Structure formats: structure tokens, C-alpha cells
Amino acid sequence: MTEDQFRYESIGVIRSPFDSPEEMPIQPVGADSTVGTVELEASYAEGLQDLDGFTHCILLYHFHAADDTVSLQVEPFLDDVHRGLFATRAPQRPNPIGLSVVEIDTVSEQEVTVEGVDVVDGTPLLDIKPFVPQFDVPDGTTETGWLDASRTTVQSTRADERFL
Length: 164
Fold this sequence. Notes:
The protein has 164 residues and is an all-beta fold.
């Protein structure tokens, strides 16, 4: 492994009702009532201590069900125009890492039950971080680029074959 390569290992798995990316919500806001579980490997369970004091957490995960073809121009789910990959959340990325902000329902010994899960069942978990509005929502965040025109459709848009 060279110095510009990194190796990550799964610390657990995300469970959801979605067997494949097709027809899955494209963002947590579109899956707000969808319950899932985050199951940690036993060796990481102690790290869940105090997480139950937060309303939300950030899940970082590996897009294991995404096609590994990377295109720097993609047609995102919320638009019919090709956009630069880094101005989208398309799953085919140079490093297929996903991020979801989910609501915490319960935290038990090795498991976190969450709402708003928008990932395929069995997704490898890389990390969990607490969502802290003072850290994660910068003041003055008003511009969302090309997404401004699509804001109202994100709740109802579902994934299709574009990124399978």
C-alpha cells in the first residue's frame, strides 16, 4: 500500500428494509420514517457510550452496492442535466463513501436503532459521529447551487437504474 492509499475496515453493518438501491429513498429526508439498525462489531460496542444523549448521528459507510464505474459528470436523481460529480451525492465516486444524518431512536449494547435510513441492507459501516448543530450547520448556509430548484422533490424521489 502506498502513502496515498488508505485501508478502512467495517466496524459494523447498517440494516434497512431496502434490498437494493432501486426504489430506495435518495436522501434521509425522503426516508424520515424508515427505521433501520446499526449493528456494531462487539469490539466497538463500548464506543456507543453516551451516544444516546444526541438526537441525531452521522453514519459514514461504504457504497458496497454501487457500480464501481466513476464518471466525473453525472445526471443526478433530482435533475435532468449532467452535473459535476462533486456537486452531487451520486454513489459512484473515486472513494465510494456515503454519509447519512439519521435520527437516533435507541442505543443498546451493540446496536443503534435509527430513523431516516436511506441505505441498502447490509451496508458496511465505517464510522458513527454525533450530529452537533453548532459544528455541523455553519452560519449563513443558504446557497445550495443547482439543488435550489429541486428542494421540494427530494422527499418523494426514489433511486432508479442510473447508479446501479
